[in-house]
Amino acid sequence: MTRRISGERKTAFYLGTVLMIVGGLLFASTFVTFIANFGDFTNFESNARSQMVRALAGMALLVAGGFLRGVGARGLAGSGIVLDPGRARKELEPYSRMAGGMVKDALDELDEDLVAGPRERVVMIKCRTCRKLNEEDSKFCQECGAEI
Ligand SMILES: [Zn+2]
User: From CA 23, how far away is CA 106, in angstroms rounded?
Assistant: First the structure.
């Protein structure tokens, strides 16, 4: 039973997240400098080159980060990089268990009658002599023996 994701995969996942954030910021920074330098043509060539490099590096980091996140979250086989369904099943087991657990939780919340079916209703008859409750089909009182 593997309910937990290994430390390496967690590290890869969070590292991927960081790479994506850095890549996104780098990519966004090109727009900021583009607007800041708008109409300013001094160092035009080097500014354009810097923007191009940052945009490409940002995109590369976003792609690499996304890849790393996917592998971290689902494992090498689970994310389809290594073709091994048996290993994929094992790597995805925490998610399968999560899904099963969520179904179980949902069923727990349901009214028990909905799952188990309606319960049989029990009708009791009160004895006229001693007032003890007896079952519907009894002829004599269980307590005092009087006829019902
Ligand atoms: Zn009775």
Answer: 39
